Amino acid sequence: MSLPKRDGIKDRYYLIHKPDTSPEVLAEADICIQDVLNGTARENHSAYPTVVRNHNGTPFLPDQLLERYLISLPLKGFPNEDAVFLCDAMRRLVGWQEICYELEKYIEKQVQERYFLVGEREDGFTVFPPCTVLPELRPEDVDEGLLRFACYVAICHTVYGQSFESLTTEHILGLVSQIRPDMVKELKTNGSGKLPPNIQKRKTKHLTASANDAFATIRITARDCGEGACEEALSYLIEILEQPEFPRSYSIEFRGPEKIYLPIPGLPKKGVHQLFACAVRYPRLHVRMENYARLAMQEDEWYNNLSDESCAMPGTFAVFALGLEGPKWWRLVCDYLDRCDDEHSSLQEKFIHTFFKKYGFTAQSLPVLVHGVQSMQNLKPAKEFRTLIANEESLDALMEIKGHLEYYLPEESGNDKRALAYLWRDVLWAIWGTASENGGSKVIKTAPKELKEKYQQVFA
């Protein structure tokens, strides 16, 4: 069979949304959809945009394939399980971001616009318009399968999307709850149903716990904060995060009888903080805390129940707790800092202040500072830093860092003199603040005579 010339960008794929698309191309698209269902389709993201190829090698855009499939489904007696199967297969093949917009628009058109009176957004800050059920809508006009599919799409935005996509989840579930509140209540109680029963709910002599993937929440109530209780709580968290269906941004709501917190001023006194402050008291649990942290640490993901000014990546409190335990855990600290969102998170500054007050500036500890200044904007020094650095050992360690600064930059920037200069400037600022400006003249001027030459080398 001879197909026409490809009409996508750089002739990489066929477009199938145009009215005059040839029947032969549409037939190949249907084959591609079937191959996605069968698991025989292949994706190619070597260039933009990502395409999906059928077993004949014919390429299409994933969102257009999804659109073609969805519009073929009946809106009365909507086959929810079939639709979910295709969406899951497509997501596994190309990733959530390739299909999320198409799914959101489908729910907007087939649920929001068909069942609701859509109002106007009152301000520029509201993401979604107000929606009220059409007064003439009859129960028999609403398809249960379509609403269940809407719930599926809502959950996917939380499970697979970026943290801000939880707003879409809330909006879609808000629509469904106006028509079928029982459906949303079931999700709130049991989640999507994809988690194993012993993870959805757990009860032992030490604790009662539950996990809900639909609302990205983990609740743990401990009867005591001893080693056994902390071990069970950590094991539970690890088991949850090992589930591929559980969201990467989530809330941990922990309650225990001992209100213990880390010795880091300014950290939010939340249950998740309390949990790891309790657990770190037991050395046998340290490796398990690290296991949790490494599973939890994900760029652009957050603990959902912390305020904006205290926003923190999952794993934060476990890392901080271990970091204060000694050098064994400082590699973990550096890995954590590398994943921090440098535009939004700042709790690491509070940790870094406490960390260097405890351990000083040494050859072992200074890498934490270099990773730290790259983890956020304008890391400010603690007032004690200029005193802590004022010794021969610390200044020599700092010079050693300066001599190998390229190790702390991405490979493509390691030889960039400007990037190296900016990084060194930030390191100096994180120790001396404004006194590091103008070549550190103020610092050098007030330096002890026996250290003046070393200060000059640092600021050279």
What would your notes on this structure say?
The protein has 460 residues and is of the alpha+beta class. The protein folds into four domains: 1-66, no CATH class; 73-190, no CATH class; 197-325, no CATH class; 344-460, no CATH class. The chain is 49% helix and 7% strand. It is built from 20 helices and nine strands. The chain has helices at residues 23-38, 62-71, 80-94, 100-115, 144-159, 166-179, 181-190, 197-200, 227-241, 271-279, 286-296, 316-323, 330-339, 347-359, 366-375, 385-388, 392-403, 417-432, 437-446, 452-459, and strands spanning 42-44, 51-53, 59-60, 116-118, 131-133, 201-203, 207-212, 217-222, 251-255. The strands form three sheets. A four-stranded mixed beta sheet has the order 6-7-8-9, with helices on both faces. The protein has a three-stranded antiparallel beta sheet with strand order 1-2-3. Strands 4-5 form a two-stranded antiparallel sheet. The mean pLDDT is 93.
